[in-house]
From TrEMBL:
One of its GO terms (molecular function) is transmembrane monodehydroascorbate reductase activity. Residues 14-217 form the Cytochrome b561 domain. It is found in: Membrane. GO terms for cellular component: endoplasmic reticulum; membrane. This is ascorbate ferrireductase (transmembrane). Its cofactor is heme b. It is a multi-pass membrane protein. The lineage of its organism: Eukaryota, Metazoa, Chordata, Craniata, Vertebrata. It comes from the Eukaryota.
Length: 222
């Protein structure tokens, strides 16, 4: 029996709500698992995986999910409040990422190891630098008059699109980190595959959110 358009719409919305709820759980659960694994404070290095997981799995994911029409934890608040919360979370994410980068760089220096010679290290560096640039670019949304030839709607679209690229870089860095000797020694078997699915799931949810926002904007123009 064929589904009606209304039924399909409800089913699609239910799937989006379920995926968004799963993304919230993963965003919090993944850093918690990393904290148990790394035991922050046991060594200088132990702070690196925790800070990076907090930056790219928890804070940045929640900063983007704030604008989800189905699963935002602040959807009952005004857009102004959500924008401020987005800014606060993104700045905290950038701070954690910078601290994580500084710690691993100093730790490698202490141990006489080379810097940024692996795909994980290079991708992580690029993700942190990109996050800094993205935060700086967000200032244009607060002061759109600085870009006289750009409409506010277009600035929002490009900010969301470039933000998605930065988020995917951060998730890629997390996934490459899970291929490191430290992680693969501690996490094996099905647990490793489950861990790899965490940033993959949140990436798919965020990509769907951004693509839907883009489609909505195109429809509203016609």
């Amino acid at each position: 029996m064929a589904l009606t358009a209304e039924t399909e719409s409800r089913l699609y919305r239910s799937l989006r709500v379920a995926a968004g709820a799963a993304a919230h759980l993963v965003a919090l659960g993944f850093p918690a698992a990393v904290a148990v694994l790394a035991r922050p404070g046991s060594s200088l290095f132990s702070w690196h995986p925790l800070l990076m997981a907090l930056a790219f799995s928890f804070l940045m994911t929640e900063a983007l999910l704030i604008f989800s029409p189905e699963t935002s934890l602040l959807r009952s608040f005004s857009r102004k409040v959500r924008v401020r919360a987005h800014w606060a979370l993104q700045l905290l994410a950038l701070l954690c990422a910078l601290l994580g980068l500084g710690i691993i760089t100093y730790n490698k220096h202490l141990n006489g190891k080379s810097h940024f010679v692996t795909w994980h290290g290079l991708t992580g560096l690029l993700a942190v630098l990109y996050a800094g640039g993205q935060c700086a670019g967000g200032v244009l949304l607060l002061y759109p008059k600085l870009m006289k030839n750009w409409t506010l709607a277009k600035l929002k679209l490009y900010h969301a699109t470039s933000g998605l690229v930065g988020y995917l870089l951060g998730c890629a860095s997390l996934m490459l980190g899970m291929c490191s000797l430290w992680f693969t020694t501690a996490v094996t078997g099905a647990s490793w595959y489950l861990a790899m699915l965490c940033p993959l799931l949140t990436s798919l949810v965020i990509m769907n959110q951004v693509s839907n926002a883009y489609l909505y904007r195109k429809r509203s123009q016609h």
